[in-house]
Amino acid sequence: MAAAGARWNHVWVGSETGILKGVNLQRKQAVNFTAAGQPRREEAVSALCWGAGGETQILVGCADRTVKHFSTEEGRFQGQRHCPGGEGTFRGLAQVDGTLITCVDSGVLRVWGDNDKETSDPLLELRVGPGVCRMCQDPAHPHVVATGGKENALKVWDLQGSEEPVFRAKNVRNDWLDLRVPIWDQDIQFLPESQKLVTCTGYHQVRVYDPASPQRRPVLEATYGEYPLTAMTLTPGGNSVIVGNTHGQLAEIDLRQGRLLGCLKGLAGSVRGLQCHPSKPLLASCGLDRILRVHRIQNPRGLEHKVYLKSQLNCLLLSGRDNWEDEPQEPQEPSKLSPEDTEADELWASLEAAAKRKLPDLEQTPGAFQTRRKKKKRPGSTSP
Alpha-carbon distance 297 to 94, whole Å? Predict the structure, then answer.
């Protein structure tokens, strides 16, 4: 794919097969990028973030603990860095002032120096607690991050300060049976123009925390559905969030009153990635059903785009540029699909064909329906 074409992709998606997929929604085209030329499941993409310089570079966190650098200007990978320490996959990536921030499942958060230098020693290492599900960077203060996970309460860390968290959330009070409420923070977001944070949990709760509150407990809590919430994103303006759960349901929750604003036509599998456009009412979502969807938030049935990408999808990045409809029509090479990415093509084709197959319309074939009724005997009838 030409560099010019890669520059105009609207969504970047990380897959379970280690492929970075660039999707141009206007042209309805998707192109695969791999550093080694072939997909490898041991390099499954678990985290994505924009690098320094706006949207010209993408940091790709892989399961083998490498962070690859992809140039959207040149349409190719420019290098990688191995980031050892701890166990598990990346649960968050961030970059600030030329340094790289990584956090893994086991709770090891590390700050690495110049990306061009392969040094084994990080500049800073923090133990944020085991069972981490998410590390999130504060856009307004890039040196501030938040972490949370299963039985690992929300914490806020200042990477320029001490090795202790600047905020540590306190669990909610016991339930009506006086039993402890379990902790399972799945995703975290910083609210704009505020110190507050919002989390979604594996127990279908959305909670807002205010570090300025002395109680350290949620200042607002709402629940949605019956299934674990797996991903969350702020809407433009930051007055509500959209959450997704393990059954592919999407809902918008108001953060001022804690009420449900509406639902979107969700995915067929667990939601893994959600992101809203910073200024347009657009939502990109992906998950285990291998389909990238783009909704228009103001219209509950406004499914703008739907792209089948052949691999299970773990995370995504949505371009924040405004000129989606005005980009130049540049020539682009046809999409080249890898052998690993097409291994299930025949199965999916058969499933789609079965889904499209319709039963006969009874209203158009009344004879068949009446024939079945004539075969039934009435009680006491002597007719054969």
Answer: 27
